Amino acid sequence: INPNQELLAMSVANVFGSFFSCYPSSSSLTRSSVLHRSGAKTQMATLFAAVILLFVILYMEPLIYHLPKCVLSAIILMALKSMFVQTVYVRKVFKYSVMEGITWIITFVSVIICDVDMGLLIAIMFNMLVIMIRLSRPSSGVMGRLSNTELYVNVKHYADALVMKGIKIFHFSCPLIFLNRHAFKEQLYKKLFNISR
Question: Does some domain include residue 176?
Fold first, then answer.
C-alpha cells in the first residue's frame, strides 16, 4: 500500500474542487488506520463503511445509546496502537543526534497535549531555534592530507593527517551568514594564528 496515494488523491480533489465552490475534503487518521488494519485495499471500503454506519444510525441507535465513551476511545486507541509503538524508535533517533531526539520528543508531547495544529507549530518553532543555534556556532578545523591519499580531513580527528608546510586549509562546517560571522572570524584567528579575538 502506497501511503501517499490517499494524500495525493485528496490534494487533487481539493485543487479541482476549488474551481467549482466545492467543500474541501479531508481525512481522519484514525479512520485510515482502521481501514488499513481491517485489510481494505481500495477506496470502496469507505463506501461500504458509510452504508453500514447509516444502517447503524437509523436502526441500531437505541441499542448503542448508552455505550460508554471510554469503550469508543479504546477502539480508537487500538486502531492507533501501531503509531504509539513507534515511540520505541526514539532511542535510535537519540543515537543519531541528541537535538533530533529532543525535537522528536517535543513534537510528540506537544501534539498530544495541545492539538495537532498547535503541536506542529511548537515543533516548527523549536526546530527553527535549533537551526539558528547550529548556524550561529558551527564546528571548524584545520584540514590535513592523509598520507598516500588525496583526502583532506580534520587534523583534530585524524592524528596521521599532515598539514602542508606554508599552507593551512580552514574548514568551516556551515554557510557563512550574518548569524555566524563573529564565530567565523573568531575561529579563523584561533585555528590559524592562535589569536583570540
Answer: yes
